[in-house]
Amino acid sequence: MKIVFSDLPMKKELHSFKYKVDGNATIEYDGETIFPVNSVLAKTMKKGEKVKVVLLSKVDIEGNSAINAGKFQKELNDINRAIGADIEYITLATPFEETRDVHETLLRDMVAKLEDNAEIIGDVTYGPKPLPIIMFAVMNFAEKFFKAKIKNIVYGKVDFVDDGSGTGKTKPVNPVLYDLTPLYYLNNVTNSMEYKSSEDAVKALDTLLDL
Question: Does the pTM exceed 0.70?
Fold first, then answer.
């Protein structure tokens, strides 16, 4: 079973890209997607496989996040027609406030969606800055207590350049999909390191990064 956590954008204007993957060619998808994680799922979902997609939505003023949840589902459903996975969608909506109560509520709600021995995929492309921190915390919990396997944590990056209209507007170009999973595991390793001095710890880290 796969469990997918994906932050939703709060903006109205969205763009579809064919993402070039940096560092993990096995998840490079030939088609275009608005939501980068859907390109990963296009390459990794299997017929009949259960996939629980947990969309992390913020209650924004114009309601764009809720609208974009529908766009996400349509995009993945279109991809899945040729695959035949069994997809369940869940939206966790929280206020657009970065308080401790909001963060703790979201963390508890995400943990409640975990299942034993699942493969977990995350997308931190969109959403407010605290969301990736919460997602990493949930993944740590899932690994330790649900025997989960963290498969991919992705981030879709674009450059913004002048669109040539003379209005000062920009357009996104040069889409690249980065797999941040090694960064997640590096954090886990450093948390488990034990050395007598900071100098020894830094040397060990340098050795680890050079591997």
Answer: yes
